[in-house]
Design a protein that fits this description.
208 residues; alpha/beta; Spermidine Synthase, Chain: A, domain 2; Rossmann fold; 5-stranded antiparallel sheet; 5-stranded parallel sheet; 8 helices; 10 strands; globular; polyamine biosynthesis; Spermi_synthase; Spermidine_synt_N
Length: 208
């Protein structure tokens, strides 16, 4: 008889998110992080990066719709959008529902993109759209060096550690501001205000 496997991501010392694991689909170590994709009984497929939950099949739509739809509905122009991060493809998928002429995604980790295409077709389907261009590279450097202007910039980053830490800095936000069109909008994943209030407030301060 196979033993039960459970996964828990702790939120501090007093709370956590726990899944009973049905199957481990893949475990890989990229240049930047460890990636695990597991199949659970209640939440379907779950992607983990360095042991932290990035998405679940059951409720990823909540995050991806909210990081895109309110901003898109507020735009005066929908010609060009930029996604920094978002290697699972969910943000790109949502933007393809609108009439953007060009959507560029800059993701630093090709292992995330390729395994999302292989195991997470419900989000990675966005990569099949002809308007989406995926660049494997450093989003910080792209924003710093590009001459392009965008109507919408979405910073769909992981938590502010390792390669993603610079995506929460004041200098990065200043560079993002430079590549926005006059009526452009920026949306950023800025941590959980309940469990990571210090990072949330720091991100807010750096944006000002």
């Amino acid at each position: 008889m196979n033993p039960e496997i459970w996964f828990t991501e702790k939120y501090g010392n007093d709370a956590g998110l726990t899944f009973k694991v049905k199957n481990i689909l893949t475990t890989q170590q990229s240049t930047y992080q460890r990636l695990d994709i597991i199949e659970t009984y209640q939440y379907g497929k779950v992607m983990l990066l360095d042991g932290l939950v990035m998405l679940t099949e059951k409720d990823e739509f909540v995050y991806h719709e909210m990081i895109t739809a309110p901003a898109v509905m507020s735009l005066k122009s929908r010609k060009k959008a930029l996604i920094i991060g978002g290697g699972d493809g969910g943000t790109a998928r949502e933007l393809t529902k609108y009439d953007f002429e060009k959507i560029i995604e800059v993701e630093i980790d090709d292992v995330v993109v390729e395994n999302s295409k292989k195991f997470l077709d419900f989000t990675a389907c966005g990569y099949n759209d002809e308007h989406v261009e995926v660049i494997i590279g450093d989003g910080i450097e792209f924003v710093k060096n590009t001459n392009e202007k965008f109507d919408l910039v979405i910073i769909d980053s992981t938590d502010p550690f390792g390669a993603a830490e610079g995506l929460f800095s004041g200098q990065f936000y200043a560079n993002v501001h430079k590549i926005l069109n006059d009526d452009g909008i920026v949306v950023a994943q800025a941590e959980n205000p309940y469990y990571s209030p210090d990072w949330f407030l720091k991100s807010r301060k750096n944006m000002q």
